[in-house]
Amino acid sequence: MAQIVHELFGRPFGWSFESVLTDLNINERTLQRYLNKFKRSFVDSAGKPLVEVFMRGDRRVLRLAQHPQSPNSNAYKAASLFFTLTVLHFLDGTILKEGVDDLWDRLRAQLPQAQGELLSDVERKFFAVPSTPKNYKDFDEQLDFILRALLHGWRLEIAYQHSPNRAPISSTLTR
User: Fold this and answer.
1) Which member of 10, 48, 80, 138 has the greatest number of CB atoms within 10 A?
2) Coil, strand or helix: which one is 88?
3) Domain range list for the chain
4) DSSP class of residue 169?
5) What is the pLDDT of residues 106-160, one digit of tens each?
């Protein structure tokens, strides 16, 4: 249970049940027992659970509950927004682009210092290459892992192999 909580602090977008089971080498019954214990014993001063389950599409995902004392995931959300904004190159030179840039600067200025430091060189880490759109819907775990590595400056080794069966991307993390 401690391992789950520890991992959740580094996964602001949650941790899928499938990955929890695989990563911790436990079965679904054990995970359900842990979740019941979390519900009864791991609560804040108002009696609200600190760990919650939510649905992402048809997958169950575990995360720290969104209470004021939960870890601040604003840098992760801001990085996701920045990545989305990089796709808007067609707006360059327009008043719309100036408005988007101003919005980004204001949002970034409001982040706590520690969160802002994670975004210190985000412009260097995210860029869009205009090409045929791709569907990354089935790769939430890999995208979350890559985003965390980029923000924290961890070194990743990624082996990508195109497969008609959409085999997952394997990756190795070096801190």
Assistant:
1) 80
2) coil
3) 2-64, 72-131, 133-175
4) P
5) 888 887 777 788 888 888 877 777 676 777 777 878 888 888 888 878 888 877 7
Which tokens belong to 160?
Answer: 């990508």
Q: Which residues contact 107 (CB under 8 A, 6 or more apart)?
A: 78, 81
Q: Look at the block and give the residue holding tokens 């989305």.
A: 84
- Its pTM stands at 0.50
- CATH number attached to the domain at 2-64: 1.10.10
Q: What number of other Cβ atoms are within 10 A of residue 122's Cβ?
A: 18
Pick from 43, 44, 4: nearest CA to 24: 4
**Three-state secondary-structure class, residue 70:** coil
Place of tokens 């899928």: 16
DSSP H or E segment with residue 35: helix 28-41
**pLDDT tens-digit series, residues 148-163:** 888 878 888 877 777 6
Which H or E element spans position 112?
none
Residues with Cβ < 8 Å from 74, sequence gap 6 or more? Answer: 111, 112, 115
**Interacting residues of 140 by C-beta distance below 8 A, sequence separation 6+:** 13, 16, 56, 59
Q: List the strands of the sheet with 59-64, edge to edge.
A: 15-16, 59-64, 51-56
